[in-house]
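fyi for ur records
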Amino acid sequence: GEVERSNRAVAMVDQMKEEGFGDCSNFAECEAVCPKGISISAIAEMRRDYMKALVS
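which gave:
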């Protein structure tokens, strides 16, 4: 839910770093080859949530 949004974004980025993936750019190359079909807009939203969580 909305209450957990910041914590969830931080946890997702931390897990991606630990597993060595997820360093997507904003040029959508990752979207074209994503095995899960995650859209660039979803990636951008997660990045915005992550940045907001870091400053709050």
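The mean pLDDT is 84. thats all i got for now
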